[in-house]
Amino acid sequence: MNPVICLTGVSKRFGSVKALDDVSLQIQPGTVCAVLGANGAGKSTAIRLLLGFEQPDKGDIDVLDMNPKTHALEIRSRVGYVSDAPPLYEWMTVEEIGWFAAGFYPTGYQPEYDRLTKRFDLDRKQKIKGLSKGTRSKVALSLAMAHRPQLLIMDEPTSGLDPLVRREFLESMIDVAAEGRSVLLSSHQVGEVERVADDVIVLMNGKVVAHERLDELKQSVTEVALSLPSASVTPPAMPGTVVAHVAWGHEHIWLVRHLDAGRLADLCRAQELPQAIVRKPSLEEILLTLLRQNRNQQTALHPSPTDPVSVEK
Predict the structure, then answer these.
(1) Mean per-residue pLDDT for 239-262?
(2) How many CB atoms lie within 10 A of CB 251?
(3) Where are the alpha helices (DSSP H) in the chain?
(4) Contact 120, 138 (CB under 8 A)
(5) 57 neighbors 69 (Cβ within 8 angstroms)
(6) Across residues 279-308, what is the average pLDDT?
(7) How far is residue 24's CA from residue 250's CA, in Å, rounded to a whole number?
(8) Which residue of 62, 66, 162, 295 is surrounded by the most CB atoms within 10 Å?
(9) For residues 248 and 225, is the Cβ–Cβ distance under 8 A?
(10) If you average pLDDT over residues 305-310, what whole number do you get?
(11) Which class for 48: exposed (0-12), middle (13-18), buried (19 or more C-beta within 10 A)?
């Protein structure tokens, strides 16, 4: 079965800003794939390229075996899309906007929309302009899901929503994947995404720094925290593959794949260092460490004019 989304060497620049930098990835059918990263990492740009709202400067994109450059309208008709601020006709009621949208889709849209609005406990007679942000988001999700799309794309859809509404959204994602359909979810709610995601993509500065099964990521990565006697002491070499390393003063945190904890303990004893604290991090903790490392690297590459600068004498 072909991937529902395939990007090959995709780059996109806006002026001097490279929003996406040689991105290649695939998303398989029947999965909930979460796209994580800081603001400006390239998440929304990638979604706009998938839907044909923007064109890549370089590379190839396939969505449901179609190219957004040539089949943008067909892709949008077959994909369900929910943004963080969905445009809705303010003067319509919940019932009327469903009836209006049904005219663009095959038979069966209206009954499914009615079922979804009932599930989300929406007042069908209430006008859109009088709805709260959370309730508007429920309407947008109902509209996006009523034609039972093979692919549902959500760009920060739960931003600013209360915990109960966010939970209802996430439960809906599980239902979609259980039916063999796919979800691409961009979100800052990392702790809640962790409950439903099968795959995780981490974007930083337009590059993919991680893309794998969530359970494999969490199983293979260990957090190591070590407090050295002073900042001048050399830390031990990690017995494993270092994913990230963040240091401030004499405090160090590593993310390490396939850590040999026994070997690490031996190294600390041999160097007369305190024993390291070793534990399994959550997805949010993994992401935060990656973001801190990225911020430190960017600061080193592009120091602020106010940062202290060493001068050779």
Answers:
(1) 94
(2) 12
(3) 43-50, 68-78, 94-102, 109-119, 133-145, 163-178, 190-196, 214-220, 261-270, 283-301
(4) yes
(5) no
(6) 78
(7) 37
(8) 62
(9) no
(10) 49
(11) middle
